[in-house]
Every structure is written in structure tokens, then in C-alpha cells.
Design goal:
This protein is mostly helical. It contains 15 helices and six strands.
Length: 358
């Protein structure tokens, strides 16, 4: 009996050892299988995770990018990982990362791994300058982008898709239909190879959000969306943020009184230039954008804008001022009469350099 018990104990011990060995071997296999494909390789690989992609769909995407060492082990990790908050975005991974690290980053939407590739559109940029900012990321020339934005068939497609885009942008006098409609912001790229349409709609979607939030105010202002963006773009080009509400008030007074806006920046726009000394012949240009010569608003916007400038126009500062100019230090001076205005610029020695608003 004693020998029999010893034999049974020995068998049980060997079974335990065998099970432990299998577990250790399996654990090692699992660890290696979910490890890095190429440890130490930190070359960035962009991985786009679309909205609604589940864990196994992400596995397919990572595997397709060459970032999965063993699919079976990866599937086991998905079963055990509790990944219930997977977040769509474009991530920057590399072959030196483990499968567990990548899934954790996607599950947490870890900003450290989200693609930082971006396009910056500053307020005050003309459409040509916006195209130039996009050209590098699209691997296209500025002209190719401008050609797309000038294609009336394409613009009509956009008009059908966005409530704030109307046939106003197809006016024959408008230089570029989408001028002023692409919202100024920093855009993080969500696809590895975005198209012109992708980036255009990204900007228009942002503009949609901003205009929708102010839709009632804009309607109450009496301006159409097109007129509102036109005035906002002029205010943007004419003044810094601190003075935009006051400058908008001056322009509102001039519009109400039927006086030309007298804005040099609209004349500069005719020549696709920024803040240059204008010649007399340029100031006499017959373009409808010449608000030194013609009363009312020009045919359309002259630059990209942001929400703060929109608010400055919607909440313009009321006054009796009809004139303004900025001195050499950038301080803006306001005047009610032309005589006071001319005296002011004479006193500042800026008679030839002033942006007089006749």
C-alpha cells in the first residue's frame, strides 16, 4: 500500500510539472507572439482606424501594416484584453512596439501615438495661400488645388452638400468661389493620403459648425451668409483681434450711410497681394473688389476667417466713427469726420502711408 501511494504521488507530481511546463511554454509563446515584429525599429508607420472598426478589424489593419507578429496570439490578446473603448483616429506606430502596446494606445486614444501631421490655415490667408499650405501634404502643386477649387462642377457638388454655400459663390465677378469659406484652423490629418476633396470638406465641416452656432445672429444682422463672410474677411485683414469690433463698427456706419468702405485690403486682393503700397492707378482699378472706388461690399470674401472675427462683426462696437488708421506702433486711431482724420494722419506723419477711407 505504501508503494502504491508513492507511485500515485509521483504521477501527480509529474502531471503538475508537465502542466506547469505547458503553461510556461504557452506563456512564453504568447508573450513572444504578441511582442514586437522588429524590436528596436522605430520607423513610423501611419495606421488609420476608421470609425466603427472593431477589435478584429483593427487586428486586420495592424497585420496589413506589418505590425503583427502572430495572429493567433493577437486574437488571444483581444479575448483577454478587455478592449471596449477603441477609438478611431490615425496613429503613429512602429515595428518596435508590441501588439499589446498598440491596442492599449487605440483603446485609450493615447495622444502620444495619434498622428501629429497637420495643416495650419491662418486667418487672413487668401485662398491661393491656403492651397500652398495644403500642397505639401497632398503632393500636388498649388495650381492643381486651385484648379479643383475653381471647377464649377465640383463647387456645385459642394453647394448641394453644405447649406451655407449658395450660388452667390458662382457670381461671375468672384475671383475664387471658395474664397473665405475654408475655416482657418489647425487640421490634423485623419488619413494617410488625403485627397483635395478630403481636406476641402474637413475645412467646410468646421465652417459649418461655426456658422451653425451663429446662424440666428447672422440672420438677425440682415446679412446673407455670403455678405457676412465678406465683411468678416475685410475686418480680419484690416485689424488685429483687439480692434476688430471697433473697425467693424466703422464699416457698419459706412455701409449704413452708403459711403464706400475705402479699404485698401480689398484693392490688394485684386492683385493677390498683402499690405503693399498701392499706386494711384491701382486705386482707380474698375474691379468690383475696389471698395476705395465703389460703395457697398465687394463680390465676396477676401480671406479665411475664424470665429472671433465673426463675433466681432456680429457684436460690433457702435460709435459715430467713419474713419480709422493705424500709426507706426500699430495703435488704431478713430475719427468721426474726414477733416479730423486727415489732421490725425498729418500729425502722425503718415499722410502717404495711411489707409485713408475716402
Amino acid at each position: 500500500m505504501a508503494k502504491s501511494k508513492k507511485k500515485k504521488s509521483g504521477k501527480i507530481l509529474w502531471i503538475i510539472v508537465l502542466v506547469l511546463a505547458v503553461l510556461v511554454a504557452g506563456g512564453g509563446y504568447y508573450t513572444i507572439g504578441t511582442g514586437a515584429v522588429e524590436p528596436g525599429n522605430d520607423e513610423t508607420i501611419l495606421v488609420e482606424i476608421p470609425n466603427g472598426t472593431g477589435a478584429y478589424g483593427i487586428l486586420d489593419i495592424l497585420d496589413g501594416a506589418g505590425l503583427v507578429k502572430n495572429r493567433l496570439c493577437a486574437k488571444i490578446n483581444i479575448k483577454l484584453g478587455g478592449y471596449n473603448n477603441l477609438q478611431a483616429n490615425t496613429y503613429e506606430f512602429n515595428k518596435g512596439m508590441t501588439f499589446r502596446e498598440m491596442m492599449k494606445a487605440i483603446n485609450e486614444g493615447d495622444f502620444d501615438y495619434i498622428s501629429k501631421k497637420s495643416i495650419v490655415i491662418n486667418d487672413g490667408l487668401r485662398l491661393e495661400q491656403v492651397a500652398e499650405a495644403m500642397a505639401g501634404e497632398l503632393n500636388l502643386s498649388k495650381q492643381e488645388i486651385m484648379d479643383k477649387w475653381s471647377d464649377k462642377s465640383y463647387v456645385k457638388e459642394l453647394i448641394n452638400d453644405y447649406w451655407f454655400l449658395t450660388d452667390d459663390v458662382l457670381n461671375k465677378d468672384i475671383m475664387y468661389p471658395l474664397e473665405g469659406y475654408l475655416y482657418a484652423d489647425t487640421y490634423f490629418l485623419t488619413t494617410q493620403d488625403p485627397s483635395i476633396d478630403d481636406l476641402t470638406r474637413m475645412c467646410l465641416d468646421r465652417m459649418d459648425t461655426e456658422l451653425t452656432a451663429r446662424k440666428d445672429q447672422i440672420k438677425a444682422s440682415g446679412f446673407s451668409i455670403h455678405e457676412f463672410l465678406t465683411l468678416t474677411s475685410i475686418v480680419t485683414k484690416e485689424s488685429s483681434a483687439d480692434d476688430q469690433a471697433k473697425v467693424a463698427g466703422v464699416f457698419m456706419n459706412r455701409l449704413d450711410q452708403g459711403i464706400s468702405l475705402g479699404s485698401d485690403v480689398t484693392v490688394c486682393y485684386i492683385y493677390q497681394e498683402d499690405r503693399v503700397e498701392l499706386k494711384v492707378s491701382q486705386l482707380e482699378n474698375d474691379s468690383p473688389y475696389n471698395t476705395r472706388k465703389f460703395a457697398g461690399l465687394p463680390p465676396g470674401p477676401i480671406s479665411a476667417v475664424i470665429g472671433d472675427a465673426m463675433d466681432a462683426v456680429l457684436n460690433y462696437e457702435k460709435s459715430d466713427n467713419l474713419f480709422f488708421f493705424a500709426d507706426g506702433d500699430g495703435v488704431v486711431h478713430y475719427y468721426k469726420t474726414e477733416a479730423d482724420f486727415e489732421q490725425g494722419i498729418e500729425d502722425e506723419g503718415l499722410l502717404e502711408d495711411s489707409e485713408d477711407m475716402d
